[in-house]
Structures are given as C-alpha cells and as structure tokens.
Amino acid sequence: MAPTTTKQWNVTGRSGFDCLQFNEKANIPKLGDHDVLVHFHSVSLNYRDLSITKGSYPFPQKDNVVPGSDGAGTVESVGSRVTRFKPGDKVVTLLNTAHVAGPINAAAMGAQLGGVLDGTLRQYGAFEEKALVHMPLSLDFKQASALPCAALTAWNSLYGLESKSLKPGDTVLTQGTGGVSIFALQTFLKGRAQFAKAAGARVISTTSSAAKTQELKRLGADHVLNYKENSSWGEEAKRLSPHGLGVDHILEVGGPTTMAQSLKAIKPEGVISIIGFLGGKGKDQPSFLECLTCICTVRGVAVGSRLQFEQMNEAIDATGIKPVVDEKVFALEELKEAYQYMVCVVLQLLPFFLDF
Hints:
Number of helices: 11
Largest sheet: 7 strands, mixed
Oligomer: single chain
Radius of gyration: 20 Å
Helix content: 25-40%
Shape: globular
Distance between the termini: 19 Å
Low-confidence stretches: 177-192
C-alpha cells in the first residue's frame, strides 16, 4: 500500500537557515495519471539550496517550497498512464522538469525543482514522469544523487553546443574554489575534469591551495594554477595551451571576479560557459565588446535537458566515471546541520549527502 504521509522540509521565508521548517507528517497528494511517486534514498545539496533560503536565488521561487533539486530513489507507485517507469525502478530527478530536449525555454525555466516546484528534501515525492530519468546502472544512490545539477551542467557546458562540442585534443579550463565556494563547485570540478579526460581533452584547473592542487592532479588535471599566487592565471592558461593559442572551453563560475581572465585565456572561436554566480554582481567586469574582440562564444548554462541527462548517464556507464563524494552523511532530520556543514567546509573538494 502506498504511503499517505511523508517527512519533509519547507522553506518558510527568505532570511536564512532558520526559515527551514520540518514537517513529520505532510500529506502526499493523490497521484495524477502521469505522476510517479518516488521513495528517496539519497539527496545531495547545491549552492542554489543555500541561496534559496537567503532570497538571493536569481530564478523564480514559490513560498513554502520543499527545497532540493538533486535526489535518487526508487519508484514506489505510478499513475494509470505512466509508461516510462514501473514500481521498483531506480530513478534520478531532473532540475528543470519541463526541459525534455532541445533549447530551454521560459516555461522550462519556470519549472525548477526546489524553486517553483516542490523538490527532493522529503521521504516521498510525486513527480511527472517526464521529470525523471533512469539511474545509471554503475552508480549507487549516493553517487547518482550528485548528478542532476552539477554533473549535468558540466555535460551541457562541454557538449551542449553541437557545432562546438568537446573533442579529443581540446583544452578545457575549469575554475577552482574561492572563499565563498561550496562543495557543489567541487562536484563541478570533478565532473568537468572526468568528462574532459574521458573525451581525450587536456584539463587546466585553477585553485587556491597546495592541498587542492594535489587533489586536482589526482583527478586528472594536466596543469593546476594557483590564482592567489598568479592573478594573471588566464594568460598563463593560454600559454600552457597547445602552441599558446588559448583554451577551447572555459567553465566560468565567478562572473565579475573571473571573467576578465577567462577572456584572456580563451581561444578564438572558443566557448565560455557561465555556470555560476559565486562572484555576485559588480560594475568592474568586461563588456560585450570584449566578447567580440576575443571572437568567442559566451553562453549561460541552465543545467541541461532530460535527453542530455540520459546521454550523460550512458557515458557514465560506458566509461566508469564515479562521482567522488564525502563520507559525511546526514539524516533527513538534520538538514539545518547539513546546511551549516556546507558553509563550514566551503574549501573542501568533496560533496556530501542526506540519506533517508
């Protein structure tokens, strides 16, 4: 018999972690014809989860939303017209639930889990079948729960523009951590390095400490630049690229604080994918004209589509890529402690999880 209540968290305001409220017996609505009820086993947290509680998330969000976008679990039951899943299937959530394939549109941007739609930080959740994908066969629930936001964004950044997608021999620049970065950024680093290396690309990474330098090299980075020791890291990255022509792909996370150096590093006809907003907003940043003079493509990346997710999962199973994760795990009831831990370990390289 399907459960009728669930433990869950809600975001009741926008002033910080104190706005997180726990409900031990929230009602589970009756499933619609195309709905799937998922029993979550693991959820991973992202920078966006912090920003949603603080009212700084740049995309729409509703009041009293169930937070969380990334989760992995098993199908508990399905609606009468569901065709893609059956009870017992292992599934992973899709952040932009209406983005099935092709370019994203305004409707899909307004249908994000944990923002406008209730998310994953609950025992059970009902989702339209189009908003789920089958879990990679080679991953466990913890590893799979790290895929929906961080890994899919990395995949879209490298392969989303088909005419300029990553190819063997390309050079990829991934940006490392800063004082305000968190584990999700580190998930991006690992996903980006692994995807790029699996494709036969060179990887140049930036970071701020010797400890992270060794970890990034262990993960496959060919060169690691300390941006605190060398503020001209973009020019150095270009010098390290084949024949000093510049890098083909840059995954840009900082915005105003890093974009100028990204433009120094990029190759003509290269692609800069803006995937984060850790640098906030600022007046001292490059103009659109500099994108023209560098003859490069600059694109915003809003995670990715379900089709891209499925393609990525096939690649994960084929190549044996494993997300590198922290051993630290929290219970669902410990969400506030998990959020605080996320803030306290901003300089760590590993993501962490909630297991149910």
